[in-house]
């Protein structure tokens, strides 16, 4: 028994245009034609269409589906297993994203509400890049330190933010002065500033042992958005991020490793 393109479209839930596209792509060519030249699909064609739709539902691109059909050496099971792994990873990523959204909503419900004028008054030129914050949440989602930092940040009052940003501004001015005056990044002055920054994080957000502080400083060089949270772009100098990272690493080396000083087993 044969079916017209319209009939196949109706009971397969695909458009006629899609069936034409599959034909042109060499994925599904009808096995017969009517005397008037219309496409006619047989039972074997419908089985193949079902396979195509199955692979498409799993997110396989048409090129990969075509390769599975054309190459007898291709193992469909291996392709399916690989796709299963990809889907599992994507599900886990989306679940973490859901958790980020839930946490962000919680921050909105419990966090301090600032007008644009108050926000500028408190944060000045420091801006919080939402894309960076989201990526950081996903990257360090299983970290106890990250969860604590988010919870404490959400609980800060406007006055808390004013105080901690004031401390940060004083520290930033001293860092810029040390850099501009040519102080070595591994010298006492730079290392003491690195230590102040570490204690500032511990005081306002989460415990920051030297190992964690090193990883935070690594982000200063790896991602400009991270360093912009410490020094706004208008105040940055070429090499300042690397200078700060070196000072943090040098300062961390001054501290003896120990249970309280190292969290290398933690995902930050």
Main beta-sheet strand count, sense and barrel state: 3 strands, antiparallel
* Average pLDDT: 80
CATH topological fold name of the largest domain: Globin-like
Low-confidence stretches: 258-268
What's the CATH H-level superfamily name of the largest domain?
Antibiotic binding domain of TipA-like multidrug resistance regulators
List how many beta strands DSSP finds.
Answer: 3
Total count of domains: 2
- What portion of residues belong to β-strands? under 5%
Q: In angstroms, what separates the terminal alpha carbons?
A: 64 Å
State the secondary-structure class: mainly alpha
Q: Enumerate the strands of the largest sheet in spatial order, edge to edge or round the barrel.
A: 1-3-2
The CATH level-2 architecture of the largest domain is identified as Orthogonal Bundle
Organism: Streptomyces kunmingensis
Pfam families: MerR_1 (PF13411), TipAS (PF07739)
Biased composition (Low complexity): 249-261
Coiled coil: 77-104
In short:
Residues 77-104 form a coiled coil. By secondary structure, this protein is mainly α.
């Amino acid at each position: 028994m044969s079916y017209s393109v319209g009939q196949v479209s109706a009971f397969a839930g695909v458009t006629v245009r899609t069936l034409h596209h599959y034909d042109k792509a060499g994925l599904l060519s009808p096995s017969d034609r009517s005397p008037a030249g219309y496409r006619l699909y047989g039972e074997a064609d419908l089985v193949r269409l079902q396979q195509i739709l199955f692979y498409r539902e799993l997110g396989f691109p048409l090129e990969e589906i075509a390769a599975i059909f054309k190459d007898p050496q291709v193992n469909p099971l291996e392709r399916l297993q690989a796709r299963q792994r990809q889907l599992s990873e994507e599900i886990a990523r989306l679940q973490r994203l859901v958790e980020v959204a839930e946490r962000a909503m919680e921050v909105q419900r419990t966090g301090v509400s600032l007008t644009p004028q108050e926000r500028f008054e408190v944060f000045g030129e420091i801006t919080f890049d939402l894309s960076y914050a989201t990526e950081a949440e996903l990257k360090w989602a299983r970290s106890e330190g990250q969860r604590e930092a988010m919870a404490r940040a959400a609980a800060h009052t406007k006055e808390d933010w004013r105080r901690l940003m004031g401390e940060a501004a004083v520290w930033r001015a001293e860092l810029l002065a040390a850099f501009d005056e040519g102080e070595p990044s591994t010298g006492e002055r730079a290392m003491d500033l690195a230590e102040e920054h570490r204690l500032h994080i511990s005081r306002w957000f989460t415990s920051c042992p030297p190992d964690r502080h090193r990883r935070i400083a690594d982000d200063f060089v790896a991602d400009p958005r991270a360093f912009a949270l410490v020094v706004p772009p208008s105040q940055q100098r070429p090499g300042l991020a690397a200078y700060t990272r070196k000072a943090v690493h040098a300062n961390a080396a001054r501290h003896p490793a120990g249970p309280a000083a190292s969290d290398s087993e933690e995902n930050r």
